[in-house]
């Protein structure tokens, strides 16, 4: 299964599999995601407009009590 990862508006990133969707805060200085450098079971390293940013999607999902099978997801950039 693929999941789309994208910036929604200033200060927010979105993760959307079509079945699971969540939006979360990111630093306001993050204005562009250039590439997903590494992904491991919900843990992302992305190259941004200011360098590397680390995102623990599993921790975010656990905090808002959403179950996502991150092991079977391939994240891609963009809305479509």
Plain-language structure description:
This protein is mainly β and 80 residues long. It contains one helix and seven strands. It has one helix at 57-63; strands at 2-7, 12-16, 21-25, 33-40, 43-48, 51-56, 74-77. A four-stranded mixed beta sheet has the order 3-2-1-7, with helices on one face. Strand 1 and strand 2 form a beta hairpin. The model has no long low-confidence stretch (mean pLDDT 92).
In short:
This protein has 80 residues and is mainly beta. The protein has one helix at 57-63; strands at 2-7, 12-16, 21-25, 33-40, 43-48, 51-56, 74-77. The chain has one helix and seven strands; from the N terminus they run ββββββαβ.
Radius of gyration computed on alpha carbons:
12 Å
Approximately how much beta-strand content do the residues carry?
over 45%
Structural class: mainly beta
Largest sheet: 4 strands, mixed
Task: Please give the count of helices.
Answer: 1
Give start-end ranges of low-pLDDT stretches.
none
Assembly context of the chains:
single chain
Helicity, in percent? under 10%
Mean pLDDT over all positions: 92
User: Separation of termini?
Assistant: 14 Å
H/E element string?
EEEEEEHE
Number of strands: 7
What strand order characterises the main sheet?
A: 3-2-1-7
**Shape, principal axes of CA atoms:** globular
Would you spell out the secondary-structure blueprint of this structure?
Layout: E1 2-7, E2 12-16, E3 21-25, E4 33-40, E5 43-48, E6 51-56, H1 57-63, E7 74-77
Parallel strand pairs: 1-7
Antiparallel strand pairs: 1-2, 2-3, 4-5, 5-6
């Amino acid at each position: 299964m693929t999941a789309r990862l994208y910036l929604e508006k200033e200060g927010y990133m979105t993760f959307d599999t079509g079945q699971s969707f969540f939006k979360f805060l990111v630093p306001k200085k993050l204005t562009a995601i250039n590439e997903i450098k590494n992904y491991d079971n919900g843990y992302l390293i992305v190259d941004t407009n200011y360098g590397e940013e680390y995102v623990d999607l599993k921790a975010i999902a656990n905090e808002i009590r959403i179950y996502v099978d991150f092991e079977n997801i391939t994240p891609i950039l963009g809305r479509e």
